[in-house]
Automatic annotation (TrEMBL):
InterPro entries: C-N_Hydrolase (IPR003010), C-N_Hydrolase_sf (IPR036526), UPF0012_CS (IPR001110). It holds the Pfam family CN_hydrolase. One of its GO terms (molecular function) is hydrolase activity. PANTHER family: DEAMINATED GLUTATHIONE AMIDASE, NITRILASE-RELATED. Keywords: Hydrolase. This is Carbon-nitrogen family hydrolase. The keyword Hydrolase applies. The keyword Hydrolase applies. PROSITE patterns: CN_HYDROLASE (PS50263), UPF0012 (PS01227).
């Protein structure tokens, strides 16, 4: 299975509309070179451009949905189109990822569960999703997560329990915490014996330099490919059988102890 991670640069110097069309063109360029294409988190606005969340929020089947659905169909790829600020018909905003099939049909939507910012930013502007989401592809099952989710291993255990073998993480991760990005991506791969495809943004927006360094890790924790800090398309070939063979050869997941009794106080 061939995968392309599009580490697009986000900057205030480019309009949302222009970046949307440029991202679609980059997706189309993967035709014949990839089976799966991944975009980062909130690449239309920037993950730290909080003032744009409300003004650029769109319905699920909004402009980004339309452009990305067509791009997926044109390229004939499975497309994780990153995430957009979604405005629910009832009013709340969500950080929502979209996955399209090679015919341009919506295969899944995932509303980010863990919102970053503590008592500000995304944590107060966006509502939290509640559902784990997996997507069955012909040769693997994807588990979806977004940025800050990477810090919460129980989410990924839930995805693995639901059948995930390839964990997709779209992010707008800041440069100042890049070491955590690489460490956590490898940890999630090792502990879940799954591929991790983590796609971030490049550039600087809202005064926050982005980490870039999108990364692909195999089920043994080996880094198969890693981007640099600038805009880049990271391409890698995956063996869809490797999660299963890894779990057979080193069956650590079978030794999980669940329902442990908490300590007495």
């Amino acid at each position: 299975m061939r995968a392309s991670l599009i580490q697009i640069a986000v900057s205030e110097d480019e309009s949302v509309e222009a970046r949307r069309e440029r991202a679609a063109a980059l997706v189309r360029e993967q035709a014949g070179a990839a089976d799966l294409v991944v975009l980062p988190e909130l690449w239309t606005t920037g993950a730290f451009a909080y003032e744009l969340f409300g003004t650029e929020a769109e319905p699920l089947e909004g402009p980004t949905y339309e452009v990305m659905a067509k791009a997926a169909a044109d390229a004939g790829v499975w497309l994780h189109a990153g995430s957009v600020p979604e405005r629910d018909p009832e009013g709340p905003l969500y950080n929502t990822s979209l996955v399209f099939s090679p015919t341009g049909e919506l295969a899944a939507a995932y509303r980010k569960i863990h919102r970053f910012g503590f008592d500000q930013g995304e944590a107060v502007l966006m509502s939290a999703g509640r559902d784990l989401v997996t997507v069955r592809l012909p040769r693997t099952t994807l588990g979806l997560a977004t940025c800050y989710d990477l810090r919460f291993p129980e989410l990924f255990r839930g995805l693995v329990d639901a059948g995930a073998e390839t964990l997709l993480i779209s992010a707008g991760w800041p440069e100042r915490r890049r070491a955590h990005w690489t460490l956590l991506a490898r940890a999630r791969a090792v502990e879940n014996q799954a591929y991790v495809l983590a796609c971030g943004t490049a550039g600087t927006h809202a005064g926050v330099p982005q980490a870039g360094h999108s990364i692909v890790v195999d089920p043994w924790g080996e880094v198969l490919a890693e981007a640099g800090p600038d805009e880049e398309v990271l391409r890698v070939t995956l063996d869809p059988a490797k999660p299963a063979t890894t779990r057979e050869q080193f069956p650590a997941l079978k030794d999980r102890m669940l329902g442990l009794t908490p300590p007495r106080r």
